[in-house]
Amino acid sequence: MTARIIDGKLIAAELRARVADEVARLKRAHRLTPGLAVVLVGNDPASEVYVRSKHTQTQAAGMASFEHRLSAEIAQADLLALIAKLNRDPAVHGILVQLPLPKSIHTETVINAIDPAKDVDGLHPSNAGRLAGGFEALSPCTPLGCIILTKSVHASLEGMNAIVIGRSNLVGRPLLQLLLNENATVTIAHSRSRELARLCARADLVYAAVGRPEMVRADWIKPGATVIDVGINRLPAGDGKTRLVGDVAFREVAEVAGAITPVPGGVGQMTVACLLVNTLRAACAIAGLPKPGV
Ligand code: GUN
């Protein structure tokens, strides 16, 4: 293997430590404890794991963590009432509704109900629009993590050719905007794109966020490119357990790429760390304090 492995676990731990320092300073200097409310509807096993990890890491950073676990049968009006309560609660600076929601609930209506100032997922149209306009915004955590990982390899992304494979609201679209803010030249590809391999072969930076196991192959990659794998796919491991694989065929791509994120231990680690950063930023903005140094 020739590629440098980007250690998301280490970079996320460093980021969490910086958040914890800043939280301690806010408590001392301003008696402000940032608070994050996470709402989980139903009991999707993957979501359960994420929510538990968010709770543990929020507390470890010295922040207040408020968990709301609701039945999958909850009426949409009751979920909206909870969000209205969290919007008014002065101890809550960040609100995250874990996705996906049960089919009986209209996701867009729920996201639109979150106060944009507390929308630490960056999914509210107000934040998505601000990001697209190049204005200051709360931005989705996974794309923020992707940018930090890329910058651990390249101090500047200016003028680089980037390709984002996937156009979801949670990853692909906001990542496109964040890369533009870094002055990269960005192509966004998706399931209908033609000649994906050829588009990829031009890219200095490849972001795979499609949810298709090991779709990106070695012969798609320009030698020396940086490859960021956002995919988290659970495949049967044969012994009744599951194993995680990304959207990139890691072993073969690592022979061609200059740097690559592993799965697990890459982007996944960064998402929660960036959620803590967003909660910190939201708390400072709501309290009228300057933007934190993290
Ligand atoms: N489900 C998987 N990833 C995410 C995320 O980043 N935010 C929310 N709200 N739900 C998710």
What does this entry look like structurally?
- The chain is an alpha/beta fold.
- The protein folds into two domains: 32-116, Leucine Dehydrogenase, chain A, domain 1 (Rossmann fold); 141-269, NAD(P)-binding Rossmann-like Domain (Rossmann fold).
- It has ten helices and eleven strands.
- Strand 2, helix 2 (45-60) and strand 3 form a beta-alpha-beta unit.
- Helix 6 (141-151) crosses helix 10.
- The chain is globular, with a radius of gyration of 19 Å.
- The model has no long low-confidence stretch (mean pLDDT 97).
- The structure holds guanine (GUN).
- Guanine (GUN) is lined by residues 96-99, 121, 141-142, 170, 271.
- Residues 96-99, 121, 141-142, 170, 271 line the site of guanine (GUN).
Structural class: alpha/beta
Largest sheet: 6 strands, parallel
Distance between the first and last residues' Cα: 34 Å
Bound molecules: guanine
Number of strands: 11
CATH architecture of the largest domain: 3-Layer(aba) Sandwich
In the CATH hierarchy, what is the class of the largest domain?
Alpha Beta
Characteristic key phrases:
294 residues, alpha/beta, Rossmann fold, 2 domains, six-stranded parallel beta sheet, three-stranded parallel beta sheet, 40% helix, globular, binds guanine
Compact description:
With 294 residues, this protein is an alpha/beta fold.
Topology diagram in text:
Blueprint: E1 4-5, H1 8-30, E2 35-41, H2 45-60, E3 64-70, H3 76-88, E4 94-97, H4 107-113, H5 125-132, H6 141-151, E5 161-165, H7 172-181, E6 185-189, H8 196-201, E7 205-208, E8 226-229, E9 233-236, E10 242-245, H9 250-253, E11 259-260, H10 267-286
Helix pairs in contact: 1-10, 2-10, 6-7, 6-10
